[in-house]
Design brief:
alpha/beta; TIM Barrel; 9-stranded mixed sheet; 29% helix; 24% strand
């Protein structure tokens, strides 16, 4: 459990429950194939049954870390920083993105959009979940919509979500990894019939990198 002083700093976004940080190749969506530094923060109550980082859900298991040290380390690796989780918007992202911007770094976020949008972002990847739908502000500002397809019903959900985002938002359908062999042919057929969508794959898993 956090003491009261640390908890206050976390609630202000001056410290974050840091699960992991690593330099790798972005594997998904619009920026796939490019080098980026990932900051994964703990804490998420959206609860997707197929989540591949369930260990991120409990924020108490990840050490509260000062954003200054997170940013200093990130700046030594890349000029593109991807904040992910967990659900990063559980926390106030304002102080972190301000510190990253002070280093002239590009700020990207991967979010379900379930909580109020905070922070200054150069790229917002919105991956909505049925359990907790995105806020109106995230829909308006999203640069890409990435819907995870686990079964046929998810195509209807994807269309419902596409109606909510702005007209310039890029639309992606991505197979859930554990059922990819069954789902990929369905996605291919769907995108060919509905070419406003693009296919996103978790290419980092095919490359065997983090």
């Amino acid at each position: 459990m956090m003491n009261m002083k640390v908890l206050e700093l976390v609630n202000k976004g001056l410290m974050l429950p840091l699960m992991e940080e690593f330099y790798t190749i972005q594997g998904e969506g619009y920026h796939k194939g490019t080098a980026a530094y990932f900051i994964r923060v703990g804490g998420c109550d959206v609860g997707c049954h197929w989540c591949d980082v369930k260990e991120s859900w409990n924020a108490d298991t990840h050490p509260p870390t000062a954003i200054e040290s997170i940013v200093e380390k990130a700046a030594t690796f890349s000029d593109t920083i991807v904040v992910t989780g967990g659900e990063p918007l559980t926390w106030d992202m304002g102080p972190l993105t301000k510190a990253l911007k002070n280093k002239n770094l590009q700020t990207h976020i991967e979010t379900s959009g379930a909580y109020e949008l905070s922070g200054t972002w150069d790229w917002i990847c919105l991956s909505p979940k049925k359990n907790k739908l995105p806020t109106a502000e995230v829909y308006r500002q999203a640069h890409e919509l990435k819907v995870i397809v686990y079964n046929k019903h998810d195509f209807l959900f994807a269309e419902e979500q596409a109606e909510q985002v702005n007209k310039d938002c890029i639309l992606y359908l991505q197979p859930e990894w554990s059922v990819r062999e069954k789902i990929i042919p369905l996605i291919v057929d769907y995108v060919m019939a509905n070419p406003k969508w693009k296919v996103s794959l978790q290419t980092h898993k095919y490359l065997n990198i983090p």
